[in-house]
Each structure stands twice: as C-alpha cells, then as structure tokens.
Write a structure and sequence with these properties.
This protein is 29% helix and 16% strand. The protein has 116 residues and is an alpha/beta fold. Among the domains are: 2-44, no CATH class; 64-99, no CATH class. The two termini are 32 Å apart.
Length: 116
C-alpha cells in the first residue's frame, strides 16, 4: 500500500500514513521516495477508545458542539468538486457536511448548502 501511495504522489508531494504499523516492511520503495523528494509522514493512530465515552457524553449533553468545525455543506453530487476546492485551499473549506437525500435540515448556526 505504501508503494502505491508513493507512486501516485507528485514530485515534492507528501504521503501521510495513518494507522498502527510495527516492524519492518519488506519491498518498501525507498528509491522512488528519495528520487522524487517525497515527504513520508507517519501520523500514527488516533487514541479513539481513550476519549470516546467522555466525548460522546459531552456531545449528548451539549457541553461541546462538534458543528463549530463545519465550514461548508455540499450535496453528495458535488463531492468531486469539493475535493478540488479543498485541494486548492479555496473558499476557506476546512470541514464539510455531505448532504444526501436522507440528511436532516441544517442545524442552527451551521453552514447553508454551498453550490460549487
């Protein structure tokens, strides 16, 4: 998997690896990594189980509001365009809500539907 990520990355791009990897990985394509100046970033694994119950309790009791990170709301049909907007860092996109036909109406103080 890491070799495929490296081969699909542009020169001087970056590959972020999220997960829990231990030991030595054989057949790692370090030559391609070095030739193309790619940064390989090990992001580690989020300690979800450590915080899950406490955070869920706080969301349920309105102690914290996870919607504050939402900057946009897209229809699922526009998701491909949304990836390009995010890649180019346009329109201040940080985190979007993807609206499907099953989605509820926007909650108060959350972004309205964005047309791309």
């Amino acid at each position: 998997m890491i070799n495929e990520c490296i081969r699909s990355t542009r020169k001087f791009g970056a590959v972020g690896i999220i997960g829990d990897y231990v030991g030595v990985t054989n057949h790692f394509n370090v030559g391609s990594l070095m030739e193309r100046g790619i940064r390989l970033i090990g992001c580690g694994q989020a300690p979800v189980q450590k915080y899950w119950e406490d955070l869920l309790y706080k969301v349920e009791n309105l102690t914290i509001d996870p919607t504050i990170m939402l900057t946009h709301r897209f229809k699922i049909d526009d998701i491909a365009k949304g990836y390009y907007v995010q890649e180019k860092r346009e329109k201040g996109l940080v985190k979007c809500f993807v609206e499907t036909r099953f989605s509820a109406r926007p909650a108060p103080d959350t972004p309205e539907l964005t047309t791309l």
